[in-house]
Write a structure and sequence with these properties.
The structure holds 3 protein chains of 3 kinds. Chain A has 11 helices and 10 strands. Chain A has helices at about 1-30, 45-55, 75-85, 100-110, 140-150, 165-175, 190-195, 210-215, 265-275, 280-290, 300-320; strands at about 35-40, 65-70, 90-95, 115-125, 130-135, 155-160, 180-185, 205, 220-225, 250-260. In chain A, helix 2 (about 45-55) packs antiparallel against helix 10 (about 280-290) and helix 4 (about 100-110) crosses helix 11. Helix content of chain B is about 70%, strand content about 0%. Chain B has helices spanning about 5-25, 40-65, 80-100, 100-115, 120-140. In chain B, helix 4 packs antiparallel against helix 5. The longest helix of chain B has 27 residues, at about 40-65. Chain B is flat. By secondary structure, chain C is an all-alpha fold. Chain C has 20 helices and 2 strands. Chain C has helices spanning about 1-15, 15-35, 40-50, 55-80, 90-100, 105-140, 145-155, 165-180, 205-225, 245-265, 270-285, 300-320, 330-340, 345-350, 355-385, 390-410, 410-430, 435-455, 465, 470-500, and strands spanning about 185, 190. A two-stranded antiparallel sheet of chain C has the order 1-2. In chain C, helix 4 (about 55-80) packs across helix 5 (about 90-100), helix 10 (about 245-265) packs parallel to helix 12 and helix 11 runs antiparallel to helix 12. The radius of gyration of chain C is 22 Å and the shape is globular. The termini of chain C are far apart. The chains are: A alpha/beta, B mainly alpha, C mainly alpha. At the B-C interface, helix 1, helix 2, helix 3, helix 4 and helix 5 of B face helix 8, helix 9, helix 16, helix 17 and helix 18 of C.
């Protein structure tokens, strides 16, 4: 009898001691501030969105704040490498988008891909479009396509940058309808907006946010959106698909962590971000900066990524922008 | 214009040629209506070549006029000290991740101090400790610059 | 009259006690951070942006404006004291400012910098009031060819920057442009000239370049000197504030710099940098004793400092009228506005004029606050220079090291800086000027981009640069300046050859 009790005791103690660190680890996480790596410069669209998103994150993460860290360089590759080569203890989060996880890896044939990360939450989806000057005589989609077809190489358009979703979308669009338009590369939406406002180009492809004031003032018209469905903030603009053009460029943003983070920590992060992205105040602020939330849980990560990869690879091929 | 200017002009010419070659061969010039990656670098490379040829001529003419002059820029200088400082800084950059901020900074400061005008060891050590600690507080803590931790984890 | 009521309202908002406090805090923090290496106005704003979340939009903007000005001034402070420019717009200040410090005139240099900035700020507020809308339309007329032409003009100014051989200066400029090619090609999106190093994948960082060429190289230069115990700043401190003589010398420079800076600041990309260089060149051209520039002439500080401050005022125009940020700091301001739910653009002026005018007023206040805050500090800075150089120089080196590191938290940047430190040291030794290199480095990428964009737009025709009025004018001026700078050299050469 005594022996059995003793054995039970020992077994119990052993199990207890083995689970303590595990339990403590889970409960203790996070015990220090977390980092959200943003691959673009401070003040840019992604940066502003991330800072707005994590402004109230601490209340969902045991009072540990999430600090935005900008790691610019090499068209998001530097940031991706930084996250992948760093510790995977769950304290380093990464803000990714179609650009950094699909377009850049496919174009540059990097040695990493979305498979090296684990999804925590999808933040949003959609948000790019194609604009023309209102005083351009061919300012509807049909007229534009007709004019472009009759005058190959004459129309020049700007985008948010080479290799961006906006560039890709236009090239795909041109290939899909068989027109020859020329891309003028710029360093971002700001430059592109100046160019079209100044009349130096008649067409531009970019994120909806910087063009919004000029749509409202009537100087520019948006002829199509690129997403799967109409963006929440621009419900009156039809998508390419709706207008019969089979080009979908899905801009999504996910928060991810590198592979290898302990499962329980991933769970905690996923739950925290679910709450953050359903928090009324955060949602309102994000809408104010032009980033309405479309949340998806980590379970959807693989599906979204796989679909996106297929679509992007196809589009890159059509647009003749695949990597060499 | 001195003798050494001629040699330096030659260096620039070589640089210009190298740049032109790399631009043409590796990067492609593209066409005039769609300039490629190597277009501007090639043009600038040409400019460098032209300018350095002019410099070469300039200095050659000068040297011909004053053949006797041989000015050494390095006599009467502490050039060894300069090299030593550069090596110290190099070491700092390489060892910072391994030693961590506090130790690496302390060491480099002490050695730098000793490399200059005479200063006693105790003074150097005190300045080293003070500066590394204060700078750590200002930059590492207040401004949250994330310094490497090093093997001793501080 | 509407204009004045608006401005008055703006001042009412700006002068409210709480906003004054925010302004003060902003300027204080901005200056402190701006003095630190590697942290220019943009980084300062990025760092302090979260602190503005809790605050009302107008107050947040006021605070951010204060931070921006404070940081710019902090960058000038290090230029004058230790020859390390806080950012590209402060490089020119190093030329004469540092020389003034070495002669014991750091006080007047810092002082005229603050006063000049204040006056320039005032003038740019006036400019904003009157010219905001018309100028924004002018800004839009600048397309790709125009940008290229302006860059060419900026580079041709290089010929006026140095004191030595023009061809050496031009070679430095060409080298600067070449260095700027290292990194990611904007058009194709692939790296070039990076020698396979990841740290160069995005190009040579401006901060490691500046810290190296100016900071490290300067220390190495000083350390090679054999003249024993030569206290670098030993000359007796001659007064803390600009003298009457200084004021007479500087007034013209301040005025010219302000006008230049304001108009150039409207153009996106490098407005402050170009205007500081052009102001310096103008001062040299206009001066009765051009050889003084570069040895510690106060106009060489007053002009550029006024110019880069006025450029900031100018930069607000595209931001507020068109919603387009002209530089990184404006982009951050834009981000800040958006977080508070305000999107700058044509409608913002109509719907929320108080934001624009409140900001204008706060800029002005920020400038004034800067003066109030920094003049007393001059005494402190000057005392700092009394530290014996043998103890000071390792700290300067550490300063540079941290600065280079902190840009990307990457030790490899320190190696880049070191490379340029040695390069700068050698170049100076062999009689090459560094300012042209920096100007060209900053302008290079934009120049190349504008060039390629123009060619795509024109389907390959070079005529586009000469058929559009603004572009043609700028290109013509650039060519003219270059030729007039080079001809004297040839004439001298001809004379020398004849007497040989």
């Amino acid at each position: 009898m005594k022996k059995q009790v003793l054995i039970h005791w020992v077994l119990g103690l052993v199990i207890f001691f083995f689970t303590i660190p595990h339990a403590l680890a889970a409960e203790g996480f996070p015990t220090k501030p977390l980092e959200l790596i943003v691959p673009f410069a401070a003040g840019g669209g992604t940066d502003v969105m991330c800072r707005t998103m994590v402004a109230r994150a601490a209340s969902f993460l045991s009072n540990q704040p999430v600090v935005v860290v900008n790691k610019t360089g090499a068209a998001t590759v530097a940031a991706s490498r930084y996250v992948l080569d760093g510790r995977n203890d769950g304290y380093t989060l990464y803000s990714t988008s179609t650009s950094s996880m699909m377009i850049v890896p496919l174009m540059q044939k990097t040695d990493f891909s979305w498979r090296d990360f684990m999804g925590i939450a999808q933040v949003l989806r959609g948000g790019d479009g194609f604009f023309v000057r209102t005083d351009f005589p061919h300012n509807t989609l049909e007229k534009f396509i007709a004019y472009a077809k009759q005058n190959p190489g004459k129309i020049k358009y700007t985008s948010a940058g080479t290799g961006s979703t906006t560039h890709l979308a236009m090239e795909g669009f041109a290939a899909a309808v068989g027109m020859d338009i020329k891309h003028i590369p710029t360093k971002g939406d700001a430059e592109a907006v100046m160019a079209i406002l100044g009349g130096h180009v008649v067409a531009a492809s970019g994120s909806l946010t910087p063009y919004k004031p000029h749509l409202e003032s009537g100087k520019l018209k948006c002829l199509a959106q690129y997403g799967v469905e109409r963006d929440k903030l621009f419900p009156q603009i039809p998508t390419f698909k709706e207008q019969g053009i089979d080009v979908i460029v899905d801009l999504w943003r996910w928060v991810v962590v590198p592979k290898g983070v302990a499962a329980d920590r991933v769970k905690i992060l996923a739950a925290a971000f679910k709450n953050i992205l359903h928090d009324k105040e955060t949602l309102a602020s994000l809408e104010k900066v032009g980033n309405p939330v479309t949340y998806l849980p980590p379970e959807e990560y693989e599906n979204v990524m796989k679909a996106s990869e297929v679509a992007m690879a196809k589009l890159l091929k059509i647009a003749k922008m695949e990597g060499k | 214009m001195e003798r050494y200017d001629r040699i330096i002009s030659l260096i620039w010419i070589a640089l210009g040629i190298g740049q032109c070659m790399e631009s043409w061969v590796l990067l492609g010039l593209g066409s005039v209506s769609e300039p490629g990656t190597g277009f501007m670098p090639f043009v600038v490379g040409l400019v460098i070549i032209v300018l350095s040829v002019i410099l070469l001529l300039e200095s050659s003419i000068e040297v011909k006029k004053n053949p006797g002059r041989k000015v050494s820029l390095w006599s009467d200088t502490h050039w060894r000290r300069v090299i030593y400082i550069v090596i110290l800084l190099l070491a700092y950059a390489l060892l910072l991740p391994k030693l961590g901020y506090l130790i690496a900074t302390f060491l480099v400061l002490v050695f730098l101090l000793k490399s200059g005008e005479p200063i006693k060891w105790p003074a150097a050590i005190i300045v080293g400790i003070l500066t590394s600690t204060i700078s750590y507080l200002v930059f590492g803590i207040w401004l949250s610059v994330s310094f490497p931790k090093g093997i001793l984890s501080f | 009259m509407d204009l004045f009521t608006n401005l008055y309202q703006g001042f009412q908002i700006g002068l409210s006690p709480i906003n004054l406090i925010y302004c003060f805090i902003g300027v204080l923090l901005g200056t402190l951070i701006g003095v630190l290496p590697g942290i220019g106005p943009s980084a300062a704003i990025a760092l302090l942006l979260p602190t503005t979340f809790r605050v009302s939009p107008v107050s947040a903007i006021i605070m951010l404006a204060g931070i921006y000005y404070g940081a710019m001034y902090g960058g000038s402070t290090t230029s004058i004291l230790v020859n390390i420019p806080g950012e590209a717009a402060s490089v020119v200040t190093c030329l004469d400012g540092y020389q003034m410090a070495r002669k014991g005139r750091a006080g007047p240099a810092l002082g005229i910098s603050a006063f000049g900035s204040f006056i320039a700020g005032t003038l740019s507020v006036v400019g904003l009031m009157i010219l905001a809308i018309p100028l924004s339309n002018v800004a839009l007329k600048f397309g790709f060819p125009e940008y290229f032409a302006i860059m060419c003009l900026g580079l041709s100014i290089v010929s006026y920057l140095g004191r030595g051989s023009i061809f050496k200066a031009l070679t430095m400029a060409a080298l600067g442009v070449s260095i700027s090619f290292i990194g990611m090609d904007v058009v194709v999106g692939k790296p070039r000239f990076d020698f396979g190093l990841l740290v160069l994948g995005d190009g040579v960082g401006l901060i490691p370049l500046l810290m190296g060429l100016f900071g490290i190289a300067e220390v190495l230069s000083n350390m090679e000197q054999k003249s024993l115990a030569r206290e670098i700043f030993q000359a007796k401190i001659k007064g803390l504030l600009p003298s009457a003589r200084d004021w007479i010398d500087s007034l013209g420079a301040i005025f010219r710099g302000s006008v230049l800076g304001f108009f150039l600041g409207i153009l996106p990309g490098g407005g402050a940098v170009i205007s500081s260089f052009i102001s310096y060149a103008v001062e040299k051209k206009v001066s009765k004793h051009p050889e003084r520039l570069g040895t510690g002439a106060i106009e060489g500080v007053a002009g550029p400092e006024s110019a880069n401050n006025a450029a900031t005022g100018g930069a607000f125009i595209p931001l507020f009228v068109l919603g387009i940020p002209s530089n990184v700091a404006m982009a951050l301001l834009l981000g800040a506005l958006m977080i508070h739910g305000l999107q700058p653009g044509p409608l913002l002026l109509k719907q929320h004029p108080e934001i624009f005018w409140g900001t204008v007023a706060s800029m002005y206040l920020g400038n004034a606050m800067l003066l109030v805050l920094n003049l007393p500090l001059i005494g402190v800075w000057v005392k700092l220079l009394r530290v014996p150089y043998k103890i000071l120089f390792p700290m300067i080196l550490l300063f540079c090291l941290i600065g280079a590191y902190s840009v990307n938290n990457n030790p490899a940047d320190m190696l880049v800086m070191l490379f340029f430190g040695v390069l700068g040291y050698l170049l100076r030794k062999y009689g090459y000027e560094l300012a042209p290199l920096v100007l060209a480095f900053v302008l290079g990428p934009q120049m190349e981009q504008a060039f390629r964009q123009s060619l795509i737009l024109s389907d390959g025709s070079f005529a586009i640069f000469f058929t559009r009025p603004i572009s043609a004018a700028a290109m013509g001026l650039a060519v003219f300046l270059l030729i007039t700078a080079v001809i004297p050299t040839f004439r001298v050469k001809r004379e020398k050859m004849e007497t040989a």
